[in-house]
Each structure stands twice: as C-alpha cells, then as structure tokens.
Give the backbone structure.
Amino acid sequence: MGSGAEKILVHIDKDLAEIVPGYIQNRWRDVEAMRLAVENHDLESLRVMGHRMKGSGAGYGFDAITEIGRRVESCAREEQIGEINHEIEALVEYLQRIDVQYE
C-alpha cells in the first residue's frame, strides 16, 4: 500500500465493538493461510476459506470481505491460482486501509 492510499471508512454497529478486532485479526490469519494454500496448490482449503469469508464479511459490515471471499471461492473451484493471488493482495490492501467507526 502506498502512503497516499486513502482510508476506507466502515461504519459498524457499536454492539459489535468487542468482536470486530478479533474478526479483523482472523482475516490477517486467513491471508497467511491462503498464501500457504496457494504455495501447496490446496484448492479445497482456498475454496473453504473463500466461502467462510463470503458468509461472514457482510454480517460484520465488511461487504468487501464478502466480495473477496466470493471471488476466492469461485477461483478455487475454477483452479485459477493466479487470480487467487490477486484476491489475497486485494484483501491485504483492504485490511490495511479500513478505518472502523462504531455507531
């Protein structure tokens, strides 16, 4: 991420304030797990991780995580490892740029 990249403001219900930091930390763990799965050409693990992100992101207010997860799942089914690498980097950039505001 360049130093000039703008923050992405995400409005989250204040009732989720205690669990959102852990959710975000788990997505950073997913980044590492997905990178390892790509190295090992483990498409099934990538599909499952993508499916999990697709199902959870919007529930926490992170629509972009849902969309990235959808694309990872789809690419894993279609054996498009190169595209999955792009999605991993999209997730990294998103996680670096989010600015959570509790309301």
